[in-house]
Design a protein that fits this description.
This protein is mostly helical. It has a domain at about 1-65. It has helices at about 1-45, 50-65, 70-85, 90, 95-105. Helix 2 (about 50-65) packs across helix 3. The radius of gyration is 20 Å and the shape is elongated. It holds the Pfam family CCD48. This is EFCC1 protein. InterPro entries: CCD48 (IPR031601).
């Protein structure tokens, strides 16, 4: 009986570790998603064309082609999309005052669970 309890405890420890790992992964995905949404919102405010946004998105998806999509690929796609959006020329052409005022605003993209 004692051996069974020890085994159950080990199984529970492993499950807890897996849950913690998944929680961290989801937290990273949420952060990346927030970054992407903020960049999209900034670009929307700059009236970027739908065609230009579409090209950025398609370029991102093509660069992240993986025959076996999964959890790791999701983070890779979000990371690449965030980099592509951040590199958009329109964001770098903003006047300094506009950029600073946008950064000083509170984050309207809060995700609550």
């Amino acid at each position: 009986e004692l051996q069974q309890k020890v085994e159950e405890t080990e199984v529970l420890k492993m499950e807890l570790q897996m849950l913690e790992t998944e929680r961290v992964r989801l937290s990273l995905v949420e952060e990346k998603l927030l970054d992407v949404l903020q960049l999209l919102q900034q670009l929307r405010g700059l009236n970027i064309s739908k065609r230009a946004l579409g090209k950025i998105l398609l370029s991102t998806l093509e660069s992240c082609c993986d025959p076996q999509p999964g959890k790791a690929q999701l983070l890779e796609v979000l990371d690449t999309l965030q980099q592509e959006l951040a590199a958009c020329e329109l964001l770098h052409k903003q006047p300094l005052e506009q950029t600073q005022s946008q950064q000083s605003l509170s984050n309207p993209l809060v995700i609550s669970c």
